[in-house]
């Protein structure tokens, strides 16, 4: 898909990988809408990019629906909202609390699918360009494939995102809408941003190359490549420098 002149929504776009992607899409000529929490820097980022900001909690179905409907058109969606918790299936205090497991599934998997279904609906009304109406990019994690001890809920959620892609691509293929997920390893964003070099070296010692944390702009470059390459569809792409998580 040609990016110039298209409308792009970046969920979680106030920071990190999503912000880098929003900046790159804007440089390519897209109109940008940032969806993020009211407490985020979303308004400032949107202003810098000449775009719009929409306050959204992805767990609030009404907020999400209203925000997506308010975009005034949609061709590109990048979804990064999510989070995890550290708890084993069986802890010293007893079984993993079921409500905590549900919360992580709700935030990552159900929240992502809710965005996807609404985004696809609005993309379906576009005039096709070479048969294509839209591109959805979701964010999984390499934990979907090698979850570490204590990541059972997060692993289940991210594996669900990875597993949705082919089916979603098939569901939406007749409409010319693609669905692709990116599965990053450890990136220098959020909690890992600014950690000491020696700690980063320990975290990335098993990477093939490069032996460092990922950079936000590397996610952005892959997202741009996905948008611009129609044959990328129905898959989850690892972005990990050859990393394979050890058990812990």
Could you outline the blueprint of secondary structure elements for this entry?
Elements: E1 7-11, H1 16-27, E2 31-36, H2 42-48, E3 52-55, H3 61-69, E4 76-79, E5 90-91, E6 94-95, H4 98-123, E7 134-139, H5 152-172, E8 177-184, H6 197-203, H7 216-228, E9 235-239
Parallel strand pairs: 1-2, 1-4, 2-3, 4-7, 7-8, 8-9
Antiparallel strand pairs: 5-6
Helix pairs in contact: 1-7, 3-4, 4-5
Would you write up a description of this structure?
By secondary structure, this protein is an alpha/beta fold. It is built from seven helices and nine strands, in the order E-H-E-H-E-H-E-E-E-H-E-H-E-H-H-E. The chain has helices at 16-27, 42-48, 61-69, 98-123, 152-172, 197-203, 216-228, and strands at residues 7-11, 31-36, 52-55, 76-79, 90-91, 94-95, 134-139, 177-184, 235-239. Strand 1 (7-11), helix 1 (16-27) and strand 2 form a beta-alpha-beta unit. Helix 1 crosses helix 7 (216-228) and helix 4 (98-123) runs parallel beside helix 5. The mean pLDDT is 94.
């Amino acid at each position: 898909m040609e990016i110039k002149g298209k409308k792009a929504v970046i969920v979680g776009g106030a920071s990190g990988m999503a912000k880098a992607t929003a900046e790159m899409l804007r440089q390519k000529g897209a109109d940008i809408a940032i969806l993020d929490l009211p407490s985020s820097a979303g308004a400032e980022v949107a202003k810098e990019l000449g775009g719009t900001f929409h306050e959204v909690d992805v767990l609030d179905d009404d907020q999400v629906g209203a925000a997506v409907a308010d975009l005034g058109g949609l061709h590109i969606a990048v979804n990064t909202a999510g989070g995890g918790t550290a708890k084993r299936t069986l802890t010293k205090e007893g079984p993993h609390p079921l409500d905590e497991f549900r919360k992580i599934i709700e935030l990552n998997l159900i929240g992502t699918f809710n965005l996807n279904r609404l985004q696809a609906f609005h993309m379906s009304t576009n005039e096709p360009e070479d048969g294509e109406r839209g591109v959805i990019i979701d964010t999984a994690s390499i934990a979907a494939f090698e979850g570490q001890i204590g990541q059972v809920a997060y692993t289940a959620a991210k594996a669900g995102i990875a597993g949705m892609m082919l089916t979603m691509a098939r569901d939406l293929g007749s409409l010319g809408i693609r669905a692709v997920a990116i599965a990053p390893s450890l990136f220098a964003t959020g909690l890992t941003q600014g950690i000491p070099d020696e700690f980063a070296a320990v975290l990335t010692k098993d990477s093939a190359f490069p032996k460092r944390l990922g950079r936000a702009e590397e996610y952005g470059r892959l997202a741009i490549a996905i948008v611009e390459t129609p044959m990328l569809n129905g898959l989850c792409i690892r972005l990990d420098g050859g990393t394979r998580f050890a058990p812990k």
